[in-house]
Every structure is written in C-alpha cells, then in structure tokens.
Design brief:
The chain is 39% helix and 16% strand. The chain is globular. The chain has a 7-stranded mixed β-sheet, with helices on both faces.
C-alpha cells in the first residue's frame, strides 16, 4: 500500500494486531520514539498509530510552515488529516505535553473521532495570569528564548536535565538531548514560542470527549495545580491522576511508574469506575 503524502511527511507508523486504534502523539523536542516503553504493551490489543509533529528533528524542515505552525490549530489540522488519510473514524488519543492540547483542539472540530483523550503533562497555558498559575512569568520566557537564540546547543544541554528531571548522565536526559539537538534551531525556537505563548483556556469548555489527565508530582514545565484546573474547566467528563514521578517526560524517565498508569487509563473508561 503506497503511503499518502501526509503519512510520509509525518513518518506515520502503524504497529500492532488489535481491532481498535490508538494514536500516540509526542511533545516538544521529542519524536515518536518517546513512546518506546509504552508501545510493546499495546500491540496485542490495538493498532498503534505513531507519528511525528512537523518541526520534529525527524521531519523534513522544508515542510515546516512558520505561519501555519504559529498556532496549535496548524498541528490539530495535521492530526485530522492523518486520521482522514488512514480512514480512522474512531480512536483513543494519547497526547504528551503540547500534543494533549493539539488533541483537544482536534476533538472540538471532530468529537466523533475521539473516544477519549489521555493527557500526559498537559497545560492549557504556561504563563501566570491574575487568577491562574501556569508556572512562568513573561520575563522567564524571554530569557529562555534569548538563551535559545544565542547558543542553541548550550541551551539544550542545560534545559534537557531541567525538563526531564535527574542528572545529565541519565539515559532519559541523553535521549531527550538527542532529539532536541535534531531540531533545526530556528524551528525549535518558533515551536517553543508558539507553545509557551498559547492560551487554550477558552477552548476547554467546548471539549465533550472524556479526558484522562495524568501528571507528574514534580514537573518544571507544568505545576501540579494545572491538572486540577483542566479537570475543573473541561466541558466533558474528566479524571485526574497525579503520579509520584518527577519530570516533564515521565514516560521516558520513570516508565515503571508511568506505563502502568497510562495502560490503566487507556484500558478503562471513567464511567467504568476509574
């Protein structure tokens, strides 16, 4: 079967022998390899769809349209295009970090396609506001963007252990550093700017798909109170589970804690007593 253009651009892979579809979407600075500890547990029960967001180091930088990806809607339309090309009309969507919000936007356009959304380390807004704690002030972000501009490689080396949690020697930090380095620096800056300056709070009330909100106890990018904010403001059913893990990429750094939690939320629905 010849791959469609959307599939090819996003490095779409489908593995597993189950009847139901599950889509795994990665966050900033990573690619589909971030799910390597989860995928083996899904192969019997699901057809697992993996893809890379445009701008990831594994995608062709010539395809990165700076205007299209200046908002998260551009990524949401990509997701819907992938599902359309694969003729998937029902799936569970697992979104890490920014991809949780990308899934949320896509589900508002097409709630019929998503049976549930599992969010890992998700935030609708990273900036603090009068009545909202996102964890960052604008000056924090401006410093971060300036550091990226002045020396991308040095910035990566400092940011990876902060984001992952743990020391520079850990395998997870090395893995995240590798996928960060793979991004073209101007694209990485543009993508992170779009993520950190976005505000998805207004859209949450329009979400009707059930959402499972999974969060690390300690995450430098997402304060734990944000998971409760999502729970209170999402329009449909939702449930929160805060794990004892540390870091923004716990599926990579603490798989022993995180994979069983993800599997539980993938396999069980909220109404079924989760």
């Amino acid at each position: 079967m010849k791959m469609g253009i959307v599939e090819e651009a996003h490095n779409v892979k489908i593995v597993g022998s189950g009847m139901r579809f599950i889509v795994l979407a990665h966050g900033f600075g990573t690619d589909q390899s971030v799910w390597k500890h989860l995928v083996p547990h899904l192969l019997e029960d699901f057809r697992v769809v993996l893809y890379d967001n445009m701008g990831a180091g594994t995608t062709n930088p010539d395809y990165f349209d700076f205007e299209r990806y200046s908002t998260l809607e551009g990524y949401a339309h990509d997701l819907l295009a992938i599902l359309k090309e694969l003729q998937i009309n029902s799936c569970i969507f697992v979104g890490h970090s920014v991809s949780a919000m990308i899934g949320v936007i896509a589900s508002v356009y097409r709630p019929d396609i998503f049976s549930k959304i599992v969010m890992l380390s998700a935030s609708p807004r990273y900036l603090n506001d009068a009545d909202y704690y996102g964890g960052f002030e604008q000056e924090d972000l401006d410093q971060l963007f300036n550091a990226m501009k002045s020396n991308y490689k040095a910035w990566c080396l400092g940011w990876a252990p902060l984001c992952v949690g743990g020391d520079m020697e850990s395998v997870a930090v090395q893995e995240f550093s590798r996928t960060l380095f793979n991004m073209r620096p101007d694209i990485a800056l543009s993508v992170l700017h779009t993520i950190y300056q976005c505000d998805m709070r207004q859209i949450l009330g329009f979400v009707t798909v059930p959402c499972h909100i999974i969060q690390s106890m300690k995450d430098m990018a997402v304060p734990v109170v944000v998971s409760e904010y999502l729970h209170q403001h999402l329009g449909g059913q939702s449930i929160v589970e805060v794990m004892s893990s540390d870091g923004h990429l716990p599926q990579l750094s603490s798989p022993d804690i995180v994979i069983p939690v993800l599997l539980k939320h993938i396999q069980h629905d909220i109404a079924a007593g989760l």
